[in-house]
Structures are given as structure tokens and as C-alpha cells.
Amino acid sequence: MSDTLKRAAAERAAALVSDGMRLGLGTGSTAAHFVAAIGERVRGGLKVIGVPTSEATRQQAEREGIPLTTLDETPELDLTVDGADELDGQLRLIKGGGGAHLREKIVAAASHRMIVIADGSKHVETLGRFPLPIEVVPFGLKATEIAIAKVLKGSGLNPDLRLRAKDGNPFVTDSGNLILDAHLGRIEKPDALAAALNAVPGVVEHGLFLGLATGAILATGEGLVELGQV
Ligand SMILES: O=C(CO)[C@H](O)[C@H](O)COP(=O)(O)O
Fold it and tell me: Where is the active site (predicted)?
């Protein structure tokens, strides 16, 4: 997706923000355009507070001069704007390509509205082409991996799990955990899979976001397309 399209979706989302809003600030290259657009509006006098979904977003928001808070101080948010790796027609998402899905999901769940900003190519018929990120605690990694593989097999899915790496080392999340990326191809029953993964000890959070997004702004070559309530 070109940066211009990402920015267009982000700027449309930023236009939905008004004074006094408590915002969840997403993570990733598309969300970064939203944070930049909000920063510009804050410098122009907009009064908002934000909860960042990652350390990277926190640093960007601080540079932009966006006042920040935490979910401990502000447990209820008006609007979260975040990117996604995939979304389907029911606004079900795969997130976590940037490894931030644990905080992203907590922040989205604390928000009255969650708007996804993404390019049109992320809109799919069936989720699963993008590998599903599963965040696990480092303790007992092998046992947890075996348990997840059993769940995948039991769900009729290929248990192709790969430990995410960065610069030759295991990728470590902001919360000190590891990520197993599940290369599934198609997820026909996301609700059942989400429930089964949630039941595995050692799984902290997976990247299936079900019933959280309330709207989406998709940037396509032909312009912006809106899904759900925007
Ligand atoms: O879930 C995410 C990070 O954990 C991102 O929102 C997702 O990876 C999309 O990123 P980008 O906008 O860079 O394509």
C-alpha cells in the first residue's frame, strides 16, 4: 500500500476526532499516520488524551506532543483507531503483524468505538492468509507450542507454528513475551479457534479481534471505502 493511501485513510479517521475525546492510539505504519495527523491537530489546539498501544506509538505520540494517559487513569476510551493485517466483511480482524496485539486488544476492548484504517488489499473473504500471531509467555514455550498445535489439529487446521524472530533472535513483545505465528491459510471458524486458543495455558493473547471493530476506512486506488459505523 502506498504511503499516500495510508495517509488518506488515517486523515479521514483523524477528522472524526473532536475536543475532549479519549483516544486509543494504534500501532503500525498506517496508525503512525493517524498519530501524526492527531499531533498536527493537537498543535493547532485540539484537546484530546491518548493511550498508546505500544512503546513505539508512545514515543511517536510524545514527539508529536499528544497528551498521554494510561488505562489505569482513564479506563474508558471514546475511540481507538488502529491498523490491521486482515479484515473480513464482518469486521473481524487479524492483528499483531507488528507484535502489539496484546495491548491493542486491551485498548480496543476499553473503547466505545474501534475504527480500522487499512488499504483495500487487507479486506479478505476469509481470514487466515496472514499468519495468526499468538503471544505466549517464554516459560514452557515448547509445551505451549505443542498444546497450541493440538488445538489447531483439533480444529482441522495445519499446525504450522513459527517462532517470530528479529535480527536472528526471538522477537520479544513490549510485555516481555514471545510470538508464535500460525500459518493457517484459512480460518473458517474464527470464534471457535479464538475460544480454543484462549483456553491454552501459556497463551497470553492471539491476534483474532472479534466483535471489537465497529467501523473501517479502507483506502483503495478508487478512493476511501467505509465499512460498518464510521
Ligand atoms: O496489528 C498491528 C501491529 O501489531 C498493525 O496494526 C498491523 O500489523 C498493520 O500494520 P501496518 O499498518 O503497518 O500494515
Answer: 104 (proton acceptor)
Query: Could you give the CA distance from residue 126 to residue 223 in angstroms, rounded to a whole number?
Result: 23
Which one from 104, 135, 145, 205 is the annotated catalytic residue? Answer: 104
Residue 2 pLDDT: 79
Determine the Cα–Cα distance for residues 3 and 19; give it in Å rounded to an integer: 27
Q: Model confidence at 187, in pLDDT bands (50, 70, 90)?
A: very high
The residue whose CA has the least distance to atom 7 of ligand 1 is: 84
pTM confidence score: 0.98
Q: Rounded distance, CA 136 to CA 201, Å? A: 9
CATH superfamily of 132-205: ACT domain (3.30.70.260)
Give the residue, by CA position, lying nearest to ligand 1 atom 3. 98
Residue 1 has pLDDT above 70, yes or no: no
Residues 6+ apart with CB under 8 A from 190: 92, 127, 208, 210
Gap from CA of 151 to ligand 1 centroid (Å): 26
- 156-179 burial, b at 16+ Cβ within 10 Å, e below that, comes to ebebebeebeeeeeeeebbeebbb
**Is 64 assigned a catalytic role?**
no
Looking at CATH, the fold of the domain delimited by 3-124+210-228 is given as Rossmann fold (3.40.50)
